[in-house]
Amino acid sequence: MATTSTSVRRFTLLLFALLAQLSVTVTAGLTGGIIRRKGTAFVDSAGNPFLVHGCNFYWLMYQGASPASRPMVDKVFQDAQTLGLNVGRTWAFSDGGDRALQISPGVYDENVFKALDYAVYQAQKHNMRLVMSLVNNYDSYGGKPQYAIWGRQKGLNLANDDAFYTNAMLRTWYKNHVKKVLTRVNTYTGVAYKDDPTIFAWELMNEPHCETDPSGNTIAAWVKEMAAYLKSIDSKHLLEIGLEGFYGASTAATRRWANPFESDGAGTDFIRLNKIANVDYATVHSYPDLWLPSWTNAAKLTFLQIWVNIHIKDATNILNMPVLFCEFGKNSRVPGFVPAQRQQFFWTVYNSVFSSISKGGGGAGSMLWQLLPKGMEAWDDGFAIYASDSSTSSIIDVQTSRLSKARATLMAAAADKPKYRRLLL
Length: 425
Fold this sequence. Notes:
Elements: H1 4-28, E1 36-38, E2 41-43, E3 52-56, H2 60-64, H3 71-83, E4 87-91, E5 102-104, E6 107-108, H4 110-125, E7 129-133, H5 143-153, H6 168-182, E8 199-203, H7 217-233, E9 238-240, H8 253-256, H9 270-274, E10 282-286, H10 288-291, H11 297-319, E11 323-328, H12 339-359, E12 363-368, H13 390-414
Parallel strand pairs: 3-4, 3-12, 4-7, 7-8, 8-9, 10-11, 11-12
Antiparallel strand pairs: 1-2, 5-6
């Protein structure tokens, strides 16, 4: 029989253990484990539906790398949580240049990596998951052009930047970066990225193009290789390519008419590429203001409606996978802009996504471009959304509410409760 002092000591140790467990539970924020795909939908580890209502904030790592700007990371996650957003998309790359993550092939700045760790940690705290993009098609933050520059510095004879997809050394450098990021152990949480439910998905590349091969064969071969390689390291998390949604050369003209311009030359193909093994869901970007600058606002809205719905139809009927509208926005810098135009734009995307969810279609969510906190107005590219702007945040709030109701309805229907079988339209 234990003495009184021993009992007190054991009780105290037990109490501390329970408090420590409680602390971990409160800090973790996220529930539902790693998100996976089931047919045309996303589900959590318990099989419950996961409906994506998200945003972009590509700059998290860059801002987090400086103590002076790191508070912007905290602020944007607070704003996202206030709006009810549950997935954010950000860069897990910065190749050369200012605050570079990868200074040169295989050489990393630990301080910048810790900034990415911090972004993942803050996402977890604010009940949010992240899509992590692994390289850029463009020269912003290095991207494909920087890999080609590094290759030429090593003496490689590269005809153009598209050698990124075909040159063995450049492909190896990209694979090494993929492995470096996926196996990174977060310095704030102690969890490897590849095991962290905070990661919603990996993105192979932001908007891959290959103008030197409009057939699409080059990008198709690259996606096949890199998707298989990534999944060999992390088979648990979702994977997407990073496509804008353009229909390519292998697709019949009866579908290519939907492209906003002659995009066959981009060397990409929405249907063909998303059929490649290991790709879990399709992505679409939507920028009528950039793609169709001479069109009227009414015509742009008509295009947007067609663009969104045709991709939902193809994701549902041809690809049998979810599709996310991972970038969409209305440019406030277009002459004659008024907030009502942005409201119409958001309603068009949100209504189509919600309708698809209600009908069990492939439209599984959307992610606005881009959410900024107050204090980052200099980063406003014309598409920025602020939580304090009621003209847009009120629409986001409505989508938050009805997606929450739809999820509850879907869960109840799965539990065979007849009174909840009718989705809340």
